[in-house]
Amino acid sequence: MGQRRMRSRQDEKGQDTGVDDRHMQIGEVAARTELSLRTIRHYEETGLVIPSARSQGGFRLYTETDVARLMVIRRMKPLGFPLDQMRDLLDATDRLDRDDPLGAAEREVLLGRVRAYEQAAAEQVDKLRVQLARAEDFAATLRARLDQNTPVAPS
């Protein structure tokens, strides 16, 4: 991905917003993640994703890293992971991604946590596939019933 410029943004009146091109306001983040403003604020209140900065006017400012965290949460949500498990996975991946070196034992513990979430996600995906197949079968059954009972127009 290209490097973002460091110039400041201006609002519709041409006034400096105090936001550089490395940061996004919540509306842009909502559009990119397809999450509502309310949901993003909720994740902030629960400590899952804290904005990286605030503008001069006090607006939440997010980075690409913040967006990536929100995407992890967005992908976990439909698989039924509760907020505490989301927090636990994000903590493990944050620690694995840090620049400071980890001991072999700590690294293995963290990787074990990530593996457990990957396995749980795979199991949930399998369950959802079964549910989807049943739903598709049900819809096909209804279509067939409708087709059987739709009068044929006379020739």
From TrEMBL:
<protein>
    <submittedName>
        <fullName>MerR family transcriptional regulator</fullName>
    </submittedName>
</protein>
<feature type="compositionally biased region" description="Basic and acidic residues">
    <location>
        <begin position="8"/>
        <end position="24"/>
    </location>
</feature>
<dbReference type="Pfam" id="PF13411">
    <property type="entry name" value="MerR_1"/>
</dbReference>
<dbReference type="GO" id="GO:0003677">
    <property type="term" value="F:DNA binding"/>
</dbReference>
<feature type="domain" description="HTH merR-type">
    <location>
        <begin position="23"/>
        <end position="92"/>
    </location>
</feature>
<dbReference type="InterPro" id="IPR009061">
    <property type="entry name" value="DNA-bd_dom_put_sf"/>
</dbReference>
<dbReference type="InterPro" id="IPR047057">
    <property type="entry name" value="MerR_fam"/>
</dbReference>
<dbReference type="GO" id="GO:0003700">
    <property type="term" value="F:DNA-binding transcription factor activity"/>
</dbReference>
<dbReference type="InterPro" id="IPR000551">
    <property type="entry name" value="MerR-type_HTH_dom"/>
</dbReference>
<feature type="region of interest" description="Disordered">
    <location>
        <begin position="1"/>
        <end position="24"/>
    </location>
</feature>
<keyword id="KW-0238">DNA-binding</keyword>
